[in-house]
Amino acid sequence: MRGGRHIAAVTGASFDLAAGQCLALVGESGCGKSVLASALLGLLPGNAQTAGTALLHGEAAADDAVDLLTASERTLARTVRGRRIGLVPQSPAAHLTPVRTVRGQLAETLRELNRTPRSALPAAVRAAADRAAFPAELLDRYPHELSGGLAQRAATALALVGGAPLLLADEPTTGLDRDLVDRTADELRRHADDGRALLMITHDLAAAQRIADRVAVMYAGRIVELTDAAGFFGTPGPRHPYARGLLAALPERDFRPIPGLPPELGDLPGGCAFAPRCPRATDRCASAPVLADGVACHHAEEPVRA
Ligand SMILES: Nc1ncnc2c1ncn2[C@@H]1O[C@H](COP(=O)(O)OP(=O)(O)OP(=O)(O)O)[C@@H](O)[C@H]1O
Ligand code: NI
């Protein structure tokens, strides 16, 4: 940033995601979810720095793995984006081509990724739109003529077209009514059930609960809990105090917000970033806990205070 300031948008994130699985990445606004997704697609701004590895394996041998963090722009553009990794972007309006109708964009994507023959295009376009509940009668609209929810559906339809082995869906249910949320989530789940992988970034814990196999909770740029969805949403529940707070804040649960605000990522405390808001914090939290056995907290195993 200007003045030599750094923002640690994502720190030490480590996870794997297998074919056939859905991992939900959840956390408050600004915690680094989209930056993580952008890093995997080589779409970070030019001033961003990355370290580490992000291996994308192919279906066959391990030797066709690509390190997404070091791959060339050429490789990413030609073989990764759209083909090996599909993206439902967080701001679909900004990603849709402004001068082409939804029909035109779907047709082009079908031709490019699936080699759909011209004669089969009209039906294929309608089928692709239908998968994301995009109304057939609005296919001739341009992106600026779409509401947020419709743009979202168009972007989801486009992302599903290629059947990419990994789908990154960044807030794919924003702006949709509850029944459409469920329908969209189920369609994304089907993508995973077809033997592909789905990384779903979402604020919507109900949608995550509906379709995720595993959950990763991010706080202030770090994954603080990574665990099976069934145990997370059911019994025994989350183990990290922040994750417990996220669930407790839901209207259908306690409806009790976590007090305080997340820290500035440009000015993170030395120890556990959640400590200032944490009911369990002690002196031990002055050192940053590492993710071990699925949770990054010095007090994860202690009984919860009422
Ligand atoms: N291009 C950028 N330049 C500077 N800071 C950025 C940039 N992009 C993201 N950030 C910062 O990185 C942090 C993480 O942002 P990110 O968009 O990943 O959050 P998020 O978890 O996706 O939140 P939301 O739920 O609001 O989409 C934020 O604090 C944001 O201000
Ligand atoms: Ni985001």
UniProtKB/TrEMBL annotation:
Localisation: Cell membrane
Membrane-topology descriptor: Peripheral membrane protein
One Gene Ontology MF term: ATP hydrolysis activity
Keywords: ATP-binding, Cell membrane, Ion transport, Membrane, Nickel, Nickel transport, Nucleotide-binding, Translocase, Transport
An example Gene Ontology biological process: peptide transport
UniProt-listed Pfam families: ABC_tran (PF00005), oligo_HPY (PF08352)
Protein name from the UniProt record: Nickel import system ATP-binding protein NikD
Upper lineage: Bacteria, Bacillati, Actinomycetota, Actinomycetes, Kitasatosporales
